[in-house]
Amino acid sequence: MKDINIELKDKTHSLAKVCATLKNTTMKEYLQKAIESAIEKDKEILKKL
């Protein structure tokens, strides 16, 4: 597993934290799932590689 360090706007961070809390998960898990979902959505782009 790799670690990344990204900057988020304050509002984005706050909303992500609230969503993670309401889903009873960690911020790390919430962001991991969000990135995996974005990759799945963009899978057609990856087929062009």
Plain-language structure description:
The chain is mainly α and 49 residues long. The chain has one domain (10-47). Helices cover 67% and strands 0% of the residues. The protein is built from three helices and no strands. Helix 1 (10-22) crosses helix 2 (27-41). The longest helix has 15 residues, at 27-41. The chain is elongated and about 35 Å long. The two termini are 23 Å apart. The model has no long low-confidence stretch (mean pLDDT 95).
End-to-end separation in angstroms reads 23 Å
Low-pLDDT runs of 5+ residues are none
The Rg value, from CA coordinates, equals 13 Å
User: Portion of residues in helices?
Assistant: 55-70%
Mean pLDDT: 95
Output the helix-strand order: HHH
Largest β-sheet summary: none
Q: Domains counted in the coordinates: how many?
A: 1
Share of β-strand residues: under 5%
Strand-helix topology:
Layout: H1 10-22, H2 27-41, H3 43-47
Characterize this entry briefly:
The protein is mostly helical and 49 residues long.
Name some characteristics of this structure.
single chain; mainly alpha; 49 residues; 67% helix; 3 helices
